[in-house]
């Protein structure tokens, strides 16, 4: 993510303490033949055990980034640990 570096805290606006919007993300070097992407944002050291903040699948193989607070129209959302089909950031 361009919003924070590896090992840094996620920005407050991407948490439940503020706007709770998804951060921008990008990726590269997909294997040849990739048909679509899936994203699972898990928090393995959450106090209650592994917590899932965001599940997206069917991201088209032509997409290599997600803008802040954006999900491609063709993509589908899975249920997070709150039982919601949306992004919910850490608290």
Provide a descriptive summary of the structure in words:
With 91 residues, the protein is mainly β. The chain is 0% helix and 26% strand. The protein has no helices and five strands. The protein has strands at residues 25-26, 36-43, 51-60, 65-66, 76-77. The protein has a three-stranded antiparallel beta sheet with strand order 2-3-5, with no helix packed on it. Strands 1-4 form a two-stranded antiparallel ribbon. Strand 2 and strand 3 (51-60) form a beta hairpin. The radius of gyration is 13 Å and the shape is globular.
Topology readout:
Layout: E1 25-26, E2 36-43, E3 51-60, E4 65-66, E5 76-77
Antiparallel strand pairs: 1-4, 2-3, 3-5
Put the structure in a nutshell.
With 91 residues, the protein is mainly β. Helix content is 0%, strand content 26%.
What is the rounded Rg? 13 Å
Sheet of most strands? 3 strands, antiparallel
Alpha-beta content class: mainly beta
Question: What portion of the residues fall into strands of 2 or more residues?
Answer: 25-35%
Shape: globular
Low-confidence stretches: none
Biggest sheet: strands side by side, in what order? 2-3-5
Total beta-strand segments: 5
- How far apart the termini lie comes to 19 Å
Helix content: under 10%
Number of H- or I-type helical stretches: 0
The residue-averaged pLDDT reads 96
Oligomer: single chain
Q: Provide the succession of SSEs.
A: EEEEE
């Amino acid at each position: 993510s361009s919003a924070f570096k590896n090992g840094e805290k996620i920005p407050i606006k991407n948490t439940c303490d503020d706007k709770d919007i998804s951060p921008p993300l990008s990726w590269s070097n997909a294997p040849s033949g990739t048909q679509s992407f899936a994203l699972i944002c898990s928090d393995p050291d959450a106090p209650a055990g592994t917590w899932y903040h965001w599940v997206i699948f069917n991201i088209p193989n032509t997409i290599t980034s997600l803008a802040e607070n954006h999900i491609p129209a063709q993509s589908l959302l899975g249920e997070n640990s709150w039982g919601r089909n949306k992004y919910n950031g850490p608290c």
